[in-house]
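Give me structure tokens for this 87-residue protein.
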Amino acid sequence: MRTFSLLFAFIALVMLAMFLIYVFRGPVEPVIAGGIFVSFVACLIPALLLLKPFEPPEELRRRREEARKRREERRSSTDGPRRGSGS
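Here you go.
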């Protein structure tokens, strides 16, 4: 999902650059400028929606906490008592 949101954000930035170049370079046709700006907004909205997490914040927090506990358990099991080389 993050890849698609970054792709939409990149396209939105390109559309914004095109809009700004069109407006500052010369005589502006309002319909064309409006179309470019609407294209910018149409790409920006999906990027923002895809970046927003779909889960409620408390569910997301609980899932992250569980993942952290699992990582700690795995780390503690691999770092357990190590045997010496035997003397």
